[in-house]
Amino acid sequence: MKKDFITIHDLSTYEFSEWLDLTEKMKKNPNKYRKVLKDKILAMIFQKPSLRTRMTFEVGMLQLGGEAVYLAPSDIQMGSREGVRDIGKNLERWVDGIMIRTFGHNIILELAESTTLPVINALTDLLHPCQALADFFTLREKKGHLAGLKLAYVGDGNNVCHSLMLAAAKAGTKMAVATPPGYEPKPEIVAWAREDGRDTGFELTITNDPFEAVREADAVYTDVWASMGQEAEKEARKKIFLPYQVNEELFSRAKPGAYFMHCLPAHRGEEVTDAVIDSPNSVVYDQAENRLHVQKVIMMLLMGKK
Ligand code: CP
Ligand code: NVA
Questions:
Q1: Residues 39 and 73 in one domain
Q2: Is residue 153 located within the same domain as residue 265?
Q3: pLDDT 10s digits, 192-237
Q4: pLDDT band for position 143 (50/70/90)?
Q5: Among 148, 204, 210, 296, whose Cα sits 20 to 30 Å from the Cα of 77?
Q6: What per-residue confidence (pLDDT) applies to 41?
Q7: Taking the mean position of all CA atoms in its chain, how far away is CA 167?
Q8: Atom 4 in ligand 1: which residue has the minimum CA distance?
Q9: Which residue out of 96, 135, 196, 223 is catalytically annotated?
Q10: Helix, strand, coil % (nearest 5) of the chain?
């Protein structure tokens, strides 16, 4: 078992589906797992705001018999009041695992390297792996399988897009990404995805045409146009991304019965219209619920008895 969960790229294809299988089992029979993290404590470092991630990690720890301690950005002032390494070395003396939501991906790598504790990625500027696992679990629940499906991602080639590509590569799901020119996913993540998906049936199309991306898609996914930390670009991005809004017209070009997906929070009227996110095809709250089930499995595997 790995010490940390930082990226889906680090999982084998087998582990990826094993984690989803375990999630299915735990979701069906939560009582069986009520004590697997008895007396264990998770430190939750947040350098950015959160609803879903905080709730699901904290509630998840309670449901597994442990506890979680929330560390707000202003509490520890990572990097200014104290360096990353010293924070890792201190936490090691008190708790059993660390969950971190931060900015630069190098911060989580430094933290994981500095401590013997398991470190879980709860979002960096580069990746959001817990989200993508929950999303693929949701898609598998709805469709019964993942291989051969087509997922269209329309919007910013950001952390969520990156982790979805890595999940699609492991799952053998076809993926089409449509972004405005200059906002494509990072080439190094695209390279990881292509490497991981070489033998799984994964196919990847990257385009600037949202209509091309959604054609024949089983699910259409979007995320905010300006991520946390990009607030200064918000107004400029609104103009650039408008042709990529998931509205009824664009969504109607996907397969009939296609699902609408979003990691949330959504900026209604920007990347998605009310008509789409509130439609019967929208599974956004199932995705949010499944964050809980997937993360309970991750915590059990990394923090429980080996
Ligand atoms: N999707 C997600 O990570 O939501 P929060 O930012 O509210 O945690
Ligand atoms: N891309 C978004 C995801 C929020 C869950 C962000 O990083 O702000």
A1: yes
A2: yes
A3: 999 999 999 999 999 999 999 999 999 999 999 999 999 999 999 9
A4: very high
A5: 296
A6: 98
A7: 9
A8: 52
A9: 223
A10: 45, 15, 40
Please count the structural domains in the chain: 2
Pull the structure tokens for residue 53. Answer: 């991630």
Q: What's the pLDDT tens digit per position in 262-274?
A: 999 999 999 999 9
CA pair distance 119, 300, nearest whole angstrom: 13
Long-range Cβ contact pairs of 179-185 (< 8 A, separation 24 or more): 179/154, 179/155, 179/206, 179/208, 179/244, 180/208, 180/240, 180/241, 180/243, 180/244, 181/208, 183/156, 183/157, 183/240, 183/241, 184/157, 185/157, 185/161
Q: What is the CATH number of the domain that holds 166?
A: 3.40.50.1370
Q: Which ligand is nearest to the CA of 153?
A: 2
Residue 306 has pLDDT above 80, yes or no: no
For residue 264, the ligand 1 atom closest to its alpha carbon is 1
For ligand 2, whether the C-beta of 160 sits within 6 Å is yes
Instruction: Look up 263 and say whether it is catalytic.
Output: yes
**Are residues 85 and 192 both part of a single domain?**
no
Count CB neighbours of 51 within 10 A.
10
